[in-house]
Amino acid sequence: MTFVATDFWDAVGKTPLIRLRRASEETGCEILGKAEFMNPGGSVKDRAAIGILGEAVKRGLLTPFQPGTVVEGTAGNTGIGLALAANARGWKSVIVVPRTQSQEKLDFLRMIGADLRLVDPKPLADPGHYVNFSRRLAEEMGAVWANQFGNSANALAHETTTGVEIWEQTGGKVDAFTCSCGTGGTLHGTARALKAKKPGVKVVLADPHGSGLYSWVKTGTVSAEGNSITEGIGQASKVPAVLEGAPIDDAVRISDAEALEQCFSLLKEEGLSVGGSAGLNVAAAIRVAKDLGPGHTVVTVLCDGGARYQSKLFNPPWLRERGLPVPSWLA
């Protein structure tokens, strides 16, 4: 019988694994990307959105098709997932985003009816940081605060869906999983699911410059250096509560140039349009595959699509100003 999704919530997940030809040929391994850009809201964050809102319903904080409001601070994609999921259940959404995020994500949030609140970028310890601002706003409004960075429902959504899907889609033949972290929900939940089936699966955190999570895994201390153009991943000063306790075996640090090389290659050579975090993930998967040696299977996450970053990652003047490579067909 053909599967017919009942609504947005039912359509999230069940995304395919795509064999990444160039990366696989380069390493002698099978490198597979979980095509999360195929979720209805366009990113892996759709899973966290319905996991968090579903838990709010279980706790009686929200009731489908009854008045309700959800508030969240986000780099964009979680806000999009929450807004669409809220629309499908008759709730309002108030989304707080740093004004430095890509214009495409900001425009999309407005288009789908989110009450968008822009704030200046601030350090996490600052009361004006978008997460702190959203928490206070939720309290003032008497609304539900999604709290993606501290809500265990985030990781649980990936443990019960993403990890299970990867295990089933590979027939259990997965040797390593690598993923970047914003909240850490994708890595933590997926890692728990895979290690429950196969404890020897190697879990590797992929981190950009400007984030201290690489140092945290390697040394136990959060220490950041440099900076990155990637949006929504990495943490400079603090490990998100959702990531704490994750069964992580190792970490790799990936430069912007490496991540962009993969974004441009996937688009031009394999017809896959992905954002910067996906490019970073693929670069990390290649690094891990080379360390493991030929014959292994490495799975990573293609977090979202490239169209959300057209004004940045695919904008030659913007790239040149930062000394970054420009895709040949746009040069």
From TrEMBL:
UniProt entry keywords in alphabetical sequence? Amino-acid biosynthesis, Cysteine biosynthesis, Pyridoxal phosphate, Transferase
Query: What is an example of a Pfam family matching this protein?
Result: PALP
Cofactor requirement: pyridoxal 5'-phosphate
Q: Report the residue ranges that make up the Tryptophan synthase beta chain-like PALP domain in this protein.
A: 10-304
The record's Gene Ontology biological-process terms are:
cysteine biosynthetic process from serine
Family from the record = Belongs to the cysteine synthase/cystathionine beta-synthase family.
Query: How is this protein named in the record?
Result: Cysteine synthase
The organism is Muricoccus roseus
